[in-house]
Design goal:
With 362 residues, the protein is mostly helical. 49% of the residues lie in helices and 8% in strands. The strands form three sheets. A three-stranded mixed sheet has the order 6-5-7, with no helix packed on it. It has a two-stranded antiparallel ribbon with strand order 1-2. A hairpin with a 2-residue loop joins strand 1 and strand 2. It is globular. The N and C termini lie far apart (51 Å).
């Protein structure tokens, strides 16, 4: 008996899933959290579901070309010295802070209609939609204009000055906190009716900010931002498609989030901010190659919130050739560090971009 080729079996499964989705989808659907708008399909629903399944199936071929890193030397030129003069980070942080205050005040005290309140429009329409678009088409700008990240880093500096320490982050958690929050947030957007009420949305936003600040104070700001802050995790994931790439010319210290796997700390906003201005880099790259690079975020990272489910053979071979080790040290008293550590590497290691660190406490 001949066996069906795996590719053909996957295609049949995709068609079957599309058919089941067509049977489950009603003839009209609400527009996410926006009330009073219904989509009434002019064509049969099964046709829309079939087209969606074919689009998802076809995206696998595009993803195959996006997982390979470009060869050394193809991404050149440090744009940061020119961008630095514009002070875009400070301007973006100020704008985002003002808009957050407007959204919270409007949600609590403004008109309780979706289209007449700044909270629902700014959060659901402008912020949530724009976050993914800007991150994927431009780069990771959210790490530098997020009021929540700025508040967490400020608190961490204050606690460090007081001599307070943080708790070790459980390695088994990985990116599960951010993954759960993404699912809850998506459920609120698509299913939960009270999410369209401005006062309810503002109360949820306030509770979320307080919860995140407590978690950052407990485990360290950079550690938690990389694993438990919903919008930071989403922005960093989408930014792996972006044409702009952050990197560090010369690492100033170990990665405080314990997530870097490359000597250039590509895409790590934590290491980028820790580096002196002359050690920061920003360059153009072909769109998509970072999708195949999964930063180290704990044992559950690749299973819970990674765009690449397993490392490539090149990555695995590079990991066998070199390793990074972390050792506790009492001499490292860098302000704001959630834990003290020294960084060492074997003499045979030459900055392999996929060498996986082994933090003693992630």
């Amino acid at each position: 008996m001949t066996r069906t080729p795996p590719t053909r079996r996957r295609f049949r499964l995709a068609l079957a899933a599309a058919a089941l989705a067509a049977l489950a989808v009603p003839g009209s659907a609400s527009a996410h959290a926006v009330p009073g708008i219904d989509y009434r399909f002019p064509l049969p629903v099964w046709l829309f579901a079939l087209a969606a399944g074919i689009a998802v199936l076809g995206s696998a071929a595009a993803a195959a070309f996006a997982t390979a890193r470009p060869e050394a030397g193809t991404a050149r030129g440090n744009l940061y010295p020119w961008v630095r003069r514009l002070r875009l980070g400070a301007a973006g942080l100020a704008l985002a802070s003002v808009l957050l205050v407007i959204a919270l005040a409007g949600g609590l005290f403004g008109a309780q209609e979706f289209f007449e309140n700044p909270a629902t429009i700014l959060i659901w329409v402008d912020f949530w939609v724009g976050l993914g678009i800007v991150s994927a088409l431009v780069g990771n700008v959210w790490d530098f204009m997020s009021p929540l990240s700025a508040a967490g880093r400020f608190l961490e500096r204050r606690f460090s000055a007081l001599g307070l320490t943080v708790l070790p982050y459980p390695s088994w958690l990985g990116l599960r906190p951010a993954t759960i929050l993404v699912l809850v947030w998506s459920w609120m957007e698509l299913v939960w009716d009270p999410a369209r009420e401005p006062r309810t949305l503002a109360a949820i936003a306030i509770a979320y900010v307080l919860l995140q600040l407590v978690a950052m104070a407990a485990f360290g700001t950079e550690t938690w931002l990389a694993r438990g802050e919903l919008f930071t995790a989403v922005a960093r994931s989408f930014a792996r498609f972006a044409p702009l790439e952050l990197y560090v010319v010369e690492p100033a210290a170990p990665c405080r989030a314990g997530r870097c796997v490359e000597e250039e700390r590509i895409g790590c906003a934590d290491c980028w901010l820790d580096a002196p201005p002359e050690g920061r880099g920003l360059r153009l790259r072909p769109t998509g190659p970072a999708c195949g690079v999964s930063p180290h975020s704990g044992r559950a990272a690749a299973r819970s919130f990674s765009l690449s489910s397993r490392p490539s053979s090149t990555t695995a071979s590079r990991r066998r050739r070199g390793t990074q080790t972390w050792r506790p040290s009492s001499s490292d008293t860098r302000p704001g560090s959630p834990r003290t550590a020294t960084f060492s590497r074997p003499s045979s290691w030459r900055g392999s971009p996929s060498a996986s660190p082994s933090p003693s406490s992630p």
